[in-house]
Specification:
single chain; 469 residues; alpha+beta; Uridine Diphospho-n-acetylenolpyruvylglucosamine Reductase, domain 2; Uridine Diphospho-n-acetylenolpyruvylglucosamine Reductase, domain 3; Alpha-Beta Plaits; seven-stranded antiparallel beta sheet; five-stranded antiparallel beta sheet; binds flavin-adenine dinucleotide
Length: 469
C-alpha cells in the first residue's frame, strides 16, 4: 500500500493522514472551483524526499497535487479524490543569495516577502510582487508564473527564473536552466516548467535573478467618477510612453469593503481610484510623476495629485492588496483575470460593466491596470443559487470579450480548473494538442496534478505520429 511504501522511504513525521487536517489542504482560494478528498498529505523537507513521494505515487498510480501556500485563484492546487497533497510548506530554506552573480537559490516553500526581505538585507531586490506576497510561495509563484504590482515595469516571475530543480513525472530529479547571466544550451525547459501549474513536474529548488535595490518611489493618485475614464487614463499613460513602476486600479466597492474590515479610514470620494508609482530618481522622476498626473487629468479625473504623504499612499496600496480577502467577507467571490492590450482597457472595462448589468451581478474591480490585467470580482450573496448561475454566465462572457479584444483569459492566475473552458476557446486545436504532447512526454503516467490546465481529447486519445498523417 502507498502509505506503507512512503513510511519505508521518508520519515514518518512527514505524513499527515488525519482527514480533519488534510481537508484544510484540499483547496486553494478559488471558492468556486470544485475539489476532491485527498488520501493523505506529505510535507517533505528535501528534493530527495519529494522524489521518493513521486516514485511511490507512480508505482501505485496515485495522483500527486503539489501545493505551496494555497493562495491560488484558479483551483490549481485543489485535491482530486484519493490524491497525495504534496505541500512544500516545510521547505523554507534560502540556500544562497549571491550579490556578485545577482542571484538567489531557494527551496520552493519560501514565502515571497521573506525572500524580498532577505534580499533587502544585502542591498538587493527581487521584483515580482504578487498582492499575495505576504503568503504565497516562490514555488507557487513559479508554477503559476505570478505577476504583481511592479510587473508593469519589471516583468513577471518567468523573467527572473534562471534555473529549476524538478522531479519529473518519471521520478527523475533534474536540473533545468542555469546560473549564468546567459545560456542557450538546449531547449529552454526551465521556462516550459514556469507556469505549468504542477502538471509537468514538482519544483524542488529555484534559482532566481535579483536586482540591486531601487530608489524610493513617488505615488500619484487619481480619482475618477467612471471606470471607463480610469481606463482611458491607463491608455493615455501608455500612449505618452511612460512606464510607471506600478499602475493599479481599485474601485469603490473594494475600498469600502477594506474600510469596513480594517477601519483604515480610507476616504472613498470616487467611484474608481488609479494608483501609479514611479521609481525614476531625481528631477526626471518628478517630471514623470507630473506627466502621469496630467494623463489622469486629461482622461477626466475628478482629482489627481502627487502624494505628499507616503504613509497615506502606502495605506491605499495596502487597501489594494487587501481588496480580495475583504470582498470575500461579503460573499463567495468568482475572480476573473483577463488581460487585454493597453489600448483596449477602456473598452474592456465598459464591456465588463455592461455584462454585470445584463446579468444582474455585482462586479467589483481591481486591476494591474498598466498591464491591461483586469480582475473583475463577481460577488454573489451566500446561498443564492440563481445569482450563482448569473455570475457564472457573466464570468464566461467576460472571457469571450477579452479574447475578442485580442486578449487572454488569464494574465497571471493560471488555468487551474476555473479556466479550462477558456483555454479551449483561446487556443487552436493544434496548439492544444501540442500541450497534450508535452504533458504526455513529461508526465507519461498522468499522475501530476491530473485534470488541471489541459483536458484529454474528447475521445481520450493522445496526439502521436498518426496525427501527422
Ligand atoms: C489576496 C490575493 C492576492 C493575489 N494577488 C496576486 C497577484 O497580484 N498576482 C498573481 O499572479 N497572483 C495573485 N494571487 C494568486 C496567487 O497568490 C498566486 O497564483 C501564487 O503564485 C500562488 O502561490 P501559492 O504558493 O499559494 O501556490 P498554490 O496556490 O499552493 O499553488 C498554485 C499552483 O502551483 C502549483 N505548485 C505549487 N507549488 C509547486 C511546486 N513546488 N512545484 C510544482 N507546482 C507547484 C500548484 O499545484 C498549483 O497548480 C493572489 C491571491 C490572493 C489570495
Amino acid at each position: 500500500m502507498l502509505v506503507e511504501r512512503l513510511r519505508e522511504r521518508i520519515p514518518a513525521d512527514r505524513l499527515q493522514l488525519d482527514p480533519a487536517v488534510t481537508a484544510s489542504y484540499a483547496h486553494d482560494e478559488a471558492e468556486w472551483a470544485p475539489h476532491g478528498t485527498p488520501l493523505l498529505m506529505v510535507r517533505p523537507r528535501t528534493a530527495e524526499e519529494i522524489q521518493e513521494v513521486v516514485r511511490a505515487c507512480i508505482e501505485h498510480g496515485v495522483p500527486v497535487v503539489p501545493r505551496g501556500a494555497g493562495t491560488g485563484l484558479s483551483g490549481g492546487a485543489n485535491a482530486v479524490n484519493g490524491c497525495v497533497i504534496l505541500s512544500t510548506e516545510a521547505m523554507t530554506a534560502i540556500t544562497e543569495i549571491d550579490p556578485l552573480e545577482r542571484l538567489a537559490v531557494v527551496q520552493p516553500g519560501v514565502v515571497n516577502d521573506q525572500l524580498r526581505s532577505a534580499c533587502a538585507e544585502q542591498g538587493l531586490w527581487y521584483p515580482p510582487d504578487p498582492a499575495s506576497a505576504p503568503w504565497s510561495t516562490i514555488g507557487g509563484n513559479v508554477a503559476t508564473n505570478a505577476g504583481g504590482l511592479c510587473c508593469v515595469k519589471y516583468g513577471v516571475t518567468a523573467d527572473y527564473v534562471l534555473g529549476l530543480q524538478v522531479v519529473t513525472g518519471t521520478g527523475e530529479l533534474v536540473r533545468l536552466g542555469r546560473r549564468t547571466a546567459k545560456g542557450v544550451a538546449g531547449y529552454d525547459l526551465a521556462r516550459l516548467l514556469v507556469g505549468s501549474e504542477g502538471t509537468l513536474g514538482v519544483i524542488t529548488e529555484v534559482t532566481l535573478r535579483v536586482h540591486p535595490q531601487r530608489p524610493p518611489e513617488r505615488t500619484v493618485a487619481g480619482y475618477f467618477s467612471s471606470i471607463v475614464d480610469a481606463g482611458r487614463a491607463v491608455t493615455a499613460v501608455g500612449a505618452a510612453g511612460i512606464v510607471p513602476s506600478a499602475l493599479e486600479l481599485v474601485d469603490r466597492h473594494c475600498l469600502e469593503a477594506v474600510d469596513q474590515w480594517k477601519k483604515m479610514d480610507l476616504a472613498v470620494e470616487a467611484e474608481v481610484i488609479l494608483l501609479a508609482r514611479c521609481d525614476v530618481p531625481g528631477a526626471a522622476g518628478d517630471d514623470e510623476a507630473d506627466a502621469i498626473r496630467d494623463c489622469f487629468e486629461q482622461a477626466g479625473a475628478t482629482w489627481a495629485a502627487r502624494s505628499t504623504d507616503e504613509d497615506e499612499a502606502d495605506a491605499l496600496f495596502a487597501a489594494r492588496r487587501l481588496a480580495y480577502p475583504a470582498l470575500e467577507r461579503l460573499g463567495p467571490v468568482l475572480t476573473e483575470d483577463v488581460c487585454v492590450p493597453k489600448a483596449a482597457v477602456p473598452e474592456m472595462l465598459a464591456r465588463i460593466e455592461a455584462i454585470g448589468q445584463r446579468h444582474d451581478t455585482l462586479i467589483a474591480n481591481i486591476a494591474h491596470a498598466g498591464d491591461g490585467n483586469l480582475h473583475p470580482l463577481l460577488i454573489t450573496p451566500r446561498g443564492d443559487d440563481a445569482a450563482r448561475v448569473r455570475a457564472q454566465r457573466a464570468f464566461e462572457e467576460i472571457m469571450v470579450e477579452a479574447i475578442a479584444l485580442g486578449g487572454t483569459v488569464t494574465g497571471e492566475h493560471g488555468i487551474g480548473l476555473l479556466k479550462m473552458d477558456g483555454l479551449v476557446q483561446e487556443l487552436p486545436a493544434a496548439v492544444l494538442d501540442l500541450h497534450r504532447a508535452v504533458k504526455a512526454a513529461l508526465d507519461p503516467h498522468g499522475i501530476l496534478n491530473p485534470g488541471k490546465v489541459i483536458a484529454a481529447r474528447a475521445d481520450g486519445s493522445t496526439p502521436g505520429p498518426a496525427d501527422r498523417g
